[in-house]
Amino acid sequence: MAKEKKEVVKFRSAKMRLLLYPDDPSHVKALERIKEDYDHAYILHEAEEDTKKPHWHVVIRFKNAQWNTALSKNLDISENYIRNSNNLDKALQYLMHFNDIEKKQYDISCVKGSLVDRLKTSINKVDRTEDEEASILIDYVVKSSKHITFAEFARYCVDNGYWATYRRGQNIFRLLIKEHNEDLCRLELRRKMEERLEHEEWLDNYNKSTGEIYPTPFDYKQEKLDFMKKNT
Questions:
Q1: Is residue 123 packed enough to be buried (19+ CB in 10 Å), middle (13-18) or exposed (0-12)?
Q2: Number of H-type helices and E-type strands within the chain
Q3: If DSSP states are collapsed to H, E and C, what string results for 163-196?
């Protein structure tokens, strides 16, 4: 079994990095459990010049911060193989050795897991300005066809790497969301009023005797007149 000789430090985090080895059965089982139970991304790296044999790099994201010792117990591996991650995007980019030209470059197709979309976003984000990110968030609000909660919007920003832009302009985004939701309420009220008016007009053109609905009041009155003439 491969061993890491680094000192184990207990920590609590919502993002962790793992180093696992395919030739260790316990690591193979741990990766399978990660695939089933955790929000993750992983990649298999080839053996490197520093004698490191083939290995998996894994990134896990939790909804709430967890202890590394708890994850170690759940996966049945040593804490030595678990590291903290302060920046999710950088941890994901490292899976590909993105912007690290001294190491072998891996294509994004080699990365697997539920966090791949976040990795794609983080790579595309590298050359984006704050103005461009703000424009993306504004479009997300104004083009939405449904009501947006602040919690949903905040989660979207976190999941797609826009948190810093949102945090700096959160008062403006809150006003935009409020305005968007109010506009939808007005449209919904107008739609219901139009349906009610249409329903009332429909009642005026409804023949209770035959159950027939006429497209206009004139058609209804003409039919009623013809019926009276026929029966007199």
A1: middle
A2: 9, 4
A3: HHHHHHCHHHHHHHHHHHHHHHHHHHHHHHHHHH
Both tokens of 157, joined, read 């920003």
**Same domain assignment for residues 109 and 135:** no
How many residues comprise the chain? Answer: 232
Question: Which amino acid belongs to residue 16?
Answer: M
Helix (H, G, I), strand (E, B) or coil at 152: helix
In angstroms, the CA 13 to CA 217 distance is: 70
Q: Is residue 80 assigned to a domain?
A: yes
Structure tokens at 44: 């298999």
Q: What is the average pLDDT across 152-164?
A: 86
DSSP 86: S
Determine, yes or no, domain membership for 2: no
Residue 92's closest CA among 73, 74, 106? 106
In this structure, are residues 20 and 55 in contact, taking their beta carbons and an 8 Å threshold?
yes
CATH number, domain containing residue 110:
3.40.1310.30
Summarize pLDDT for 103-140 with one digit per residue, the tens. 888 999 999 999 999 998 888 776 678 888 899 899 99
Task: Return d(Cα 152, Cα 134) in angstroms, integer.
Answer: 17
**Structure token pair of residue 9:** 């430090």
